[in-house]
Amino acid sequence: MYKIAVGVARGLEYLHRGCNTRILHFDIKPHNILLDEGFCPKISDFGLAKLCFKKESIVSMLEAKGTIGYIAPEVFSRNFGEVSPKSNVYSYGMIILEVVGGRENKDVREFNTSEKYFPHWIYKHVEQDKELKWHGVNSSEENEIAKKMIIVGLWCIQIRPLDRPSMNKVA
Prior knowledge:
- The protein is mainly α and 171 residues long.
- 40% of the residues lie in helices and 7% in strands.
- Mean pLDDT is 83; it is low at 106-114.
């Protein structure tokens, strides 16, 4: 789980800083992360991607792009900030929380459900330093790694893009 998360982060970092032209994916979600036979992650489906020059840090968009539950707030409302590589950072953070938590992110607008919005639920548990039992986590060392991944995920999904880390800090 940890190696996959780091591999995705490095892939996004490459798209943001390693290419001659910066690539913003805009549809980072579990379905677009493929694993090879060695469980090495590969980012796929660049149908919504946008190219921009490395000197550009802000991207103009006419419409929201992405999958609900993974879209950064600024992508659908400029009141939250400007669309930038930090929009992919938000999506990455949502994936990390989902992977570590072993449950799908629920849309906060689903008022008829008895389930809480997962990022809020996980934040409260980490804030209160509650013991978290994760699927597939069997040792205290694995639990510490999972907890660190959750903290990184929460860092990545902050509402203001300026408060989120860049992918090179995450990777």
